[in-house]
Structure formats: structure tokens, C-alpha cells
Design a protein that fits this description.
Helix content is 6%, strand content 44%. It starts with a strand and ends in a 12-residue tail after the last helix. It contains one helix and five strands, in the order βββββα. The chain has one domain. It is globular. The chain has 64 residues and is mostly beta strands. Strands 1-2-5-4-3 form a five-stranded antiparallel β-sheet.
Length: 64
């Protein structure tokens, strides 16, 4: 999994795997979900990220 923030466009992209994207669905005007040929989620893109996310804090926790 990879999370990238593009400051020049204020965009966050969360990539869950490296599968080829064959379909993109607009969740709303600022959030896109991208899917592979089997319908599995590949990535989520959030435009105008500073309005929609808390970029100052990132927490990762794996719970077993």
C-alpha cells in the first residue's frame, strides 16, 4: 500500500495494489475510486485534500 500527497495539486492518492485500472467511479466531485478488471479496488484519489482530510496527522496501526 502506498499513500502519496501531491502538494502542487492538493491531491492524495492511496494505492492498495499495482493492478491495472480499468474502471473509475466518481464517489463525489472530489473523490475517485479506481478498480481492476475483477472489480477489486486499486486506489482512491482525493482532490482538494486539505479540505477533505487531516493531512497533518497520519496513523498506521496493524491490529492482529
Amino acid at each position: 500500500m502506498k499513500i502519496e500527497y501531491f502538494e502542487d495539486t492538493d491531491t492524495v492518492q492511496v494505492t492498495f495494489n499495482e493492478n491495472s485500472i480499468v474502471d473509475t467511479k466518481d464517489i463525489d466531485e472530489n473523490i475517485l475510486a479506481e478498480f481492476d478488471e475483477k472489480g477489486h479496488l486499486v486506489s482512491i484519489t482525493v482532490e482538494h485534500a486539505q479540505e477533505h482530510t487531516n493531512l497533518d496527522s497520519f496513523i498506521y496501526q496493524k491490529v492482529s
